[in-house]
TrEMBL record, chain A:
NCBIfam families: 2a6301s01, PRK12645.1. It is a multi-pass membrane protein. This is Cation:proton antiporter. Belongs to the CPA3 antiporters (TC 2.A.63) subunit A family. Residues 67-112 form the NADH-Ubiquinone oxidoreductase (complex I) chain 5 N-terminal domain. It is found in: Cell membrane; Membrane. It comes from Domibacillus aminovorans. Residues 715-792 form the MrpA C-terminal/MbhE domain. The chain crosses the membrane at residues 6-22, 29-52, 72-100, 112-128, 134-154, 166-188, 208-233, 245-267, 273-293, 300-319, 339-363, 375-397, 431-453, 474-493, 533-553, 596-618, 630-649, 656-673, 679-700, 712-734, 772-790.
From TrEMBL, chain B:
NCBIfam families: PRK12573.1. It holds the Pfam family MnhB. It comes from Domibacillus aminovorans. Its main location: membrane. The chain crosses the membrane at residues 6-28, 35-55, 70-94, 115-136. InterPro entries: CPA3_antiporter_subunitB, MnhB. Keywords: Cell membrane, Membrane, Transmembrane, Transmembrane helix. The keyword Lipid biosynthesis does not apply. GO terms for cellular component: plasma membrane. This is Cation:proton antiporter. It is a multi-pass membrane protein. Residues 7-131 form the Na+/H+ antiporter MnhB subunit-related protein domain.
Amino acid sequence: MISIHAFILIPILTAFLIPIFGRQFPKLHLGWVVLPVPILLFSFFVSKIPVISANKAITGSVAWIRALDLHFAVYLDGLSLIFTLLITGIGSLVVLYSIFYLSKEKESLSHFYTYLLLFMGAMLGVVLSDNLMVLYLFWELTSISSFLLIAFWFRRKKSRYGAQKSFLITVGGGIAMLVGFIMLQVMTATNSVQEIIAMRDSIQDHELFVPSLVLILLGAFTKSAQFPFHIWLPDAMEAPTPVSAYLHSATMVKAGLFLVARFTPVFGGEATWFWLVSGVGIFTMFWGSFTAVRQNDLKALLAYSTISQLGLMMSLFGLGSAALQGGASTNSIIYTQAIFAALFHLVNHATFKGALFMIVGIVDHGVGTRDVRKLGGLLSLMPITFTLSVIGSFSMAGLPPFNGFLSKEMFFTAVLNAPEMSIFSMDTWGLLFPIIAWIGSIFTFIYSMIIVFRTFLGPYRRERLEKDPHEAPIGMLLSPIVLCTFVILLFFFPNLLSKYLLAPAMNGILPTYQNMEGFIPKISAWHGFNLELLMTAGVVILGIVLMNTYRFWNVIYDLFPEKLSLDRGYQWILAASESGSKKATDRYMTGFLPNYLYYIFGFLLLMVGGTLFLSGSIAFDPSNDASVSLYEGVFVGIMSIAVVGILFAKSRMTATLLNGLLGYSIAVFFVLFRAPDLALTQLVVETVTTVLFLLCFYHLPEWSKEDRSWKVRFPKIIISIGMGALTVLIALSVQGNKLFESISSYFEDSYELAGGRNIVNSILGDFRAFDTMLEVVVLFIAGIGVYTLVKLKAPQGGDKIERK
Amino acid sequence: MRENDIILQTVSKVAVFIILTFGVYLFLSGHHNPGGGFIGGLTLSSAFVLLYIAFDVESVNAGIPLNYKMVAAVGVLIAICTGMGSLLFGSAFLSQSSAYFNLPVFGKTGFATVTLFESGVALGVVGVVITIMVSISEDV
């Protein structure tokens, strides 16, 4: 199936065409050009639902670099399908929304849509790749496109700060993940995820198993904004709202969840995995919702709420992984329900959170502020937006009749099952799960209500708003309306989703449980008066009470002063690493050219000379040497005189000319030894360098002004004598050491092998053409380097503008 | 400022063409005899350097309005692209081949893909050498 490869590459290729479109049709809003791409992809993946729901996986592989086991392998199963549908579906809606959100006149749309499409392709690549290295490639590509999108308004300092922060954290985690991948590769000798899953039993006792697990989780946690790496997500909200809705709530931040789900069949059942995933997840869920309540900016509130929801899903994946401990049985099937809940909530969260972000964008667009302290009373002015926000927030709070209620109930079921586990010492610690989950849910309820009540109800104060509020155009409302429709539809028909999407995904994550009774539960809204329902009731009652008494208990937030926040920690680390590396670099980068030459030659002396001595390779074998002729003797004499003459030269000019004499004499030697090519090259190079030397004279200080004290000269003398001796030693020892067969037969047969009689050029242009090509590239880089160093000096004070 | 370099200038006017011709000869003869892209390129650039020495930078630039950075970039591109050309014929990257043809005037003439590659090398060398020379001398 080549077509799936093509569908990953379509967005990336289109991304490169976007700037051309932008130039050709300046009057067209580029969004309309982009919109067909995700719609096309979405319909393609929808058409695959029948195949996938029959529990088949679509695979395909294109060889890339065989020697490195690098194949562009794709694997489309239930789990990938859910993600691809989210990526392309929400992607279509976001593009549609952005057409009305971003103005064609003010914004650089070709950048925006290029980055967005790049992200879409990269994200599809992440969820479809079966090869670890390709997955990593796409993974980092999502980080890069996210960086570019956050910094879209790059003139704002906060945008740049947020972009850098998200980049450092997610790419840092990504590198840890890469190391984990390499460990997996070392253990299994394959890069294919599916093959690794098949080898699960044979690697579990390997000493690298747990380290690779931890490192891969680091990648997942940083990407999915889990505590304590969550700090990048609120700052990423500097991105345009369509981006926040797309990358930072619906898709990219879920890549970590995808990774956890994908690797659950490998690592699931391991205690470290269980505790890390579920523990970090549940704490993040609590911390995110707790912090969200204190936010004044609606987008920041949504960011923390996303963190909290991601934590919720993460903890569910962790709890569900217990099902893989000790093999599949009817006793442990109850734990699998956590994973089912996670997948279900994944879809639900994408619908309601995407809608909420778009709503906040509409409010921001309409009134010019997102600060809840200024907002209020917008109900009568923006009735449709209000309705949509009620649907979105009530679903997030876990109230019926919205899809969030169903998955929230299942979440409660899963955490209530936790204390009954008899493994991983859950019988003692397990009780914490339902308690933390319940407290977190109360805060979730509170912030969900803040979105509705403090924005749309309460007193309307025009003087605090920047613009006259008005309802958004229908184009902007369309996308959230579609998402909110899904929020309601999924409440009434959850089992359709379960049958076609969730069930195949479950089979992919937990293949051993396939076809077991009760593995795919029937989702229903009413279970009778059970503990879960009581918990929800408690959440609502306590939530309302706490919300109305907020001003009495908000002192609790003072317990976490700004000074001790994780954000400060991040800034401190950043500043410390900057100043630390500057200190370390300044110590040896003195800006004094002779010092650099000391490093280079000193290193060479130590390494080469050391190797020469330690390996005992100093061996002279003069038996094969030709005898010295008269001419050669004469030229050696001339060269020695020139060399000694340089040392006593009074002016630079003399020294340069003597140096040129040396070079020309070498050329004569080449002639004597019948190497006309080398002789020619040497002659021309010598000429050109002499001219270059003469040019540089202008910039050099007076010869006599240099410090010629012994303190300065002594190291120079040591280095020069050492280098000279070393070169002579190497030249003489080469004859004495035959490490391998001579390759001169290649050169003798150069006419047959390369079609040329000139062996020097056969080497340059054919045998070692790769070297020559790269040498030309290096030469070019050097030339451009000289040019930029000389020509492009920053104007005085010009550098400071960017630093502001 | 030089006061009188009439001799140098007159000699250069003639010599430059000799050097240029020699450079082209070296470049073309490289397949079987001494020469090749690198030496050819260096010789060509030494002709330019001679011009820059004999005359001043402004008048040479006015006479030969070439952007040498572009020359170098084009050379590098040619060197890399000819390497990729062999991929189109199913051979490995940078494979070269040669053949003989009977041409009307020249008789039996050899053609080799390596000449294309070497022309990239030559252009790269010319571009870089002159770029470095000119940028350093203009900095004065």
